[in-house]
Design a protein that fits this description.
Elements (H helix, E strand, L loop, with lengths): L2 E7 L3 H11 L5 E8 L6 H14 L7 E3 L13 H4 L21 H11 L5 E5 L4 H9 L7 E7 L15 H5 L1 H8 L5 E4 L1 H4 L6 H8 L4 H21 L9 H8 L4 E6 L1 E3 L10 E3 L11 E7 L1 H12 L3
Parallel strand pairs: 1-2, 1-4, 2-3, 4-5, 5-6, 6-10
Antiparallel strand pairs: 7-10, 8-9
Helix pairs in contact: 1-2, 1-10, 1-11, 4-5, 5-7, 9-10
Length: 312
């Protein structure tokens, strides 16, 4: 039986690849809906991009919902410097024709978790945690019904990518992240420590292009656009495909290793705001609350990604 998931996202080229990977894997994953949040770009663009991606995959039946347009208590910080002004810069895609759902994303999350059998819905946040935290605040009864939260966010050994101390998704809404990490829900984290081991290379991008499909070409061109920022910043061979790690973990957990540890989010210091303080070495007596992934089999990850994207 495929696992029921909700993808909560702020697309983003790497979010796009994650959504495509999920939609290409119906044996393992059943995408109940895609919920958009403000993050990489503002909400009007993230909900639009989510619909563009579903249309590209030919999955116009997947409902897309717009959620929170700003963090819980801070002004919105965006990442056009990485993803371009639309969030999906690179190749131009037509405006989506599939409708945006009228229901608010937070209401969809609450309703779905209440209606489905307890412990059968996995939340997959690929952006700031605003929608998830808002749902948990409004309907605390749903927290115990979540099967798992598998999220991309945070960093410890790799430190920050938006400030010296903080990873972007957590930094954008640290109060939401704090709420989710303290919720008691089961959490699996794909931090920069792991995603920076899943770098695109010329050969890996070429394999997308060599598919000769519209989707394969789009993924290659998005990656070309997206990786220019990281190559320049880190001097690396390619760019990390952060968000697809969330989906790949649900399909092939054997590709990933990590530790069940305590993770706290800094919300009071401007210097380290949004830092994920991960007790990797167990030096505190704070209770473990998240499985913090540290390593991925990059070759296996890209083999999976290439095989699945070629299906679309």
């Amino acid at each position: 039986m495929p696992r029921d998931i909700i993808i909560d996202t702020d697309p983003g080229q790497d979010d796009a690849v994650a959504i495509l990977l999920a939609l290409a894997s119906p044996e393992e994953l059943n995408v109940l809906g895609v919920t958009a949040v403000a993050g990489n770009v503002p909400l009007p663009l993230t909900q639009r991009n989510a619909r563009i991606i579903c249309e590209l995959a030919g999955h116009t039946h997947v409902p897309v919902f717009a959620g929170c347009d700003r963090p819980l208590s801070r002004r919105l910080v965006t990442a056009e410097h990485v993803h371009g002004k639309t969030g999906l810069d690179g190749p131009q895609l037509p405006d989506p024709t599939m409708a945006l759902q009228d229901q608010h994303a937070v209401d969809f999350i609450i309703e779905t978790l209440r209606e489905r059998p307890s412990g059968t819905v996995t939340l997959c946040p690929l952006g700031p945690l605003t929608n998830i935290a808002t749902a948990f605040q409004r309907a605390p009864d749903i927290i115990a019904r979540v099967q798992d939260i598998v999220l991309m966010g945070g960093a410890y050994f790799e430190v920050g990518n938006i400030t010296p101390a903080a990873e972007f998704n957590i930094y954008v809404d640290p109060h939401a992240a704090e709420n989710v990490f303290r919720s008691g829900a089961p959490i699996t984290v794909m931090p920069l420590d792991l995603t920076h081991k899943a770098l695109t290379t010329a050969g890996r991008v070429a394999s997308f292009r060599a598919m000769g499909t519209h989707v394969g070409t789009m993924v290659a061109e998005w990656t070309d656009f997206f990786e220019r920022f990281d190559k320049e910043k880190y001097g690396s061979e390619g760019a990390p495909l952060h968000d697809p790690c969330v989906i790949a973990y649900l399909i092939r957990p054997d590709l990933f290793t990590g530790r069940f540890i305590n993770v706290e989010v800094e919300t009071t210091s401007e210097l380290t705001m949004g830092m994920t303080v991960a007790d990797w070495w167990g030096v505190t007596n704070r209770p473990a609350n998240a499985t913090f992934m540290g390593h991925v089999d990059a070759a296996g990850f890209f083999a999976l990604l290439t095989e699945r994207i070629a299906r679309l």
